[in-house]
Automatic annotation (TrEMBL):
InterPro entries: D-isomer_2-hydroxyacid_DH, D-isomer_2_OHA_DH_cat_dom, D-isomer_DH_NAD-bd, NAD(P)-bd_dom_sf
Protein name: Lactate dehydrogenase-like 2-hydroxyacid dehydrogenase
Family statement drawn from the similarity comment of this UniProt entry: Belongs to the D-isomer specific 2-hydroxyacid dehydrogenase family.
GO cellular component: cytosol
Species of origin: Sphingopyxis panaciterrulae
PANTHER family in alphabetical order: 2-HYDROXYACID DEHYDROGENASE-RELATED (PTHR10996), GLYOXYLATE_HYDROXYPYRUVATE REDUCTASE B (PTHR10996:SF283)
């Protein structure tokens, strides 16, 4: 594929509002169209954009399926995705269209691991439930049996997946609370330290006091936390998900929360974002956050600069640092 060689700067569309430092960086280097209103672009707008720009910096809210990517007369040569996940982009269609796709790995590990610990503590200590009671004016004062939760010190944290974010979460849980670490992944890690490997997810579920998900999206992980798996958990176990909403059968989780078999859940991601399963909304013992995993100024700026590095490499004719297609 030949890159644009015209004298003017490449035309770039940024589909959502980004941190100011990132937008300033793009303004200095591209003929850029930003989205100050931060309104989502529909399929028609994305399809039209394919013929107006040389590059697009999309996010997980933008669906680039074959119908968008195959737009006649398309001029876009690269999608520099703002985010580590890229399930919203049809990679096969991108390859057919000769469009490169990159992502922004590695820069959100610390922020997401912090949030996993936050959700674990909020869920076990009933913090979300307690704040809702207080704000609603229902709190009648301290009493010995009010809002009793459970501690995490010395408990077993079961990690589903053992990548960078899972390891960072384990580090915090071990150092901060003396938790025992167990994990399930496709293969046993050689550098797992004292973390115990379980060859099946069900075996891990039987041992974990808190089960924390750290897996990619896709058919392989869809609804891996289903009714049978939830039944295998210890009574009173807690579920945390900062990975992909599709990994959990939300109706099954809501039923397990309602029955009390699962004591609590802390969820930052949902299968049909921004929609949340109504049964989950009805569960007082569910902590529900609006996808805040990477939402620190440090992480979100670093994500933008990582996308920028991919764009700059592309238009300079260099190898892409983070190519996924």
């Amino acid at each position: 594929m030949s890159l644009r060689s015209r004298a003017s700067r490449p035309r770039l569309l940024v589909t959502r509002r980004l941190p100011a430092a990132v937008e300033d960086h793009f303004r200095a280097r591209y003929d850029v169209e930003l989205n100050p209103a931060d309104t989502p672009l529909d399929a028609a707008a994305l399809r039209a954009a394919m013929t107006r720009f040389d590059a697009i910096c999309p996010t997980i809210t933008d669906r680039f399926d074959a119908a968008v990517l195959d737009a006649p007369g398309a001029t876009v040569t690269i999608l520099a995705n703002y985010g580590a996940g890229f399930e919203h982009i049809d990679l096969d269609a991108a390859k057919r269209a000769g469009i490169a796709v990159t992502n922004t790995p590695d820069v959100l590990t610390e922020a997401t691991a912090d949030l996993a610990i936050l959700l674990m503590l909020m869920a076990t200590r009933r913090a979300g439930e307690g704040e809702r009671e207080l704000r609603a004016g229902r709190w009648t004062g301290w009493r010995p049996t009010h809002m009793i939760g459970q501690g995490v010190a010395g408990k077993t944290l079961g990690l589903v997946g053992f990548g960078r974010i899972a390891r960072a979460t384990a580090e915090r849980a071990r150092a901060g609370f003396g938790m025992r670490i167990a994990y399930f992944s496709r293969r046993e890690a050689e550098d797992a330290g004292d973390a115990v490997f379980y060859p099946t997810l069900k075996a891990l579920a039987r041992e974990a006091d808190i089960l924390s998900l750290h897996v990619p999206g896709g058919a392989e992980t869809r609804h891996m936390i289903d009714a049978p798996l939830l039944a295998a958990l210890k009574p009173g176990a807690v579920i945390v998900n900062t990975a992909r909403g599709s990994a959990i059968d939300e109706a099954a989780l809501a039923a397990a929360l309602a029955s009390g078999h699962v004591a609590a859940a802390g969820l930052d991601v949902f299968e049909r974002e921004p929609a949340v399963h109504p049964a989950l909304l009805a569960c007082d013992n569910a902590v529900l956050l609006p996808h805040l995993g990477s939402a620190t100024i440090e992480a979100r700026t670093a994500m933008g600069m990582r996308a920028a590095a991919n764009l700059e490499a592309w238009f300079a004719g260099r190898d892409l640092p983070d190519r996924v297609a």
